[in-house]
Write a structure and sequence with these properties.
5 strands; five-stranded parallel beta sheet; globular; alpha/beta; 9 helices; binds adenosine monophosphate
């Protein structure tokens, strides 16, 4: 199965993505994790990405698309994958469509976690105390929510129109949300 998991920063995407990737026995492809690994290794890509990440901005589409194209063509992602944090812009949606067409495959579903915005800010501020992430300051947290609303939320309509959007209530315990995600998936 080939899936995307979406949701605003703080929706619990990363936590649910790990469980969901295991459930579908697919490659877990988190663009945020790949960028962070590059930052840690001080690669050219990492140096470039860091400036955007620290400001709560998106890394430019050309850079992100090229990175995902490379990752999706690796053998472990051929039959099943979960994209976590990608696509985030309409340009990325169209590029992903083209990549999958080239690979002769297509998406089976998009799981969207919904959480109310006050809860999101509270969760992220709590995570900031322990995460060590340089993009977890309050200003950046608020900015990342705004960027999500303007750049990424419109993608939900695109996938809803295609009939492959599965919205899941992201409030409650990790186990409850995991069960809801499993129940929402296409057969
Ligand atoms: P995440 O861990 O998914 O919240 O991603 C952390 C940061 O990495 C984001 O705030 C962006 O700066 C960058 N990033 C991750 N995925 C993407 C993407 N699909 N497009 C652009 N930037 C991204």
């Amino acid at each position: 199965m080939r899936l995307i998991i979406m949701g605003p920063p703080g929706a619990g995407k990363g936590t649910q993505a790990t469980a969901l990737a295991a459930r579908i026995n697919g490659a877990h492809i988190s663009t945020g994790d790949i960028f962070r690994a590059n930052v840690a290794e001080e690669t050219e890509l990492g140096t470039l990405a860091k400036q955007y990440m620290d400001a709560g901005e998106y890394v430019p589409d050309e850079v992100t698309n090229a990175m995902v194209k490379d990752r999706l063509s690796q053998p472990d992602a051929l039959t099943a994958f979960l994209l976590d944090g990608y696509p985030r812009t309409l340009d990325q949606v169209h590029t992903l469509d083209a990549m999958l067409a080239d690979l002769g495959s297509q998406l089976d579903g998009v799981v969207a976690l919904t959480v109310d915005s006050e809860e999101l800010i509270a969760r992220l501020l709590k995570r900031a105390q322990t995460s060590g992430r340089t993009d977890d300051t309050e200003d950046v947290i608020r900015h990342r929510q705004e960027v999500y609303v303007s750049e990424t939320a419109p993608l939900l309509d695109v996938y809803r129109e295609r009939g492959i959007l599965f919205e899941v209530d992201g409030m409650g315990s990790i186990e409850d949300i995991e069960a809801r995600v499993a129940a929402a998936l296409p057969a």
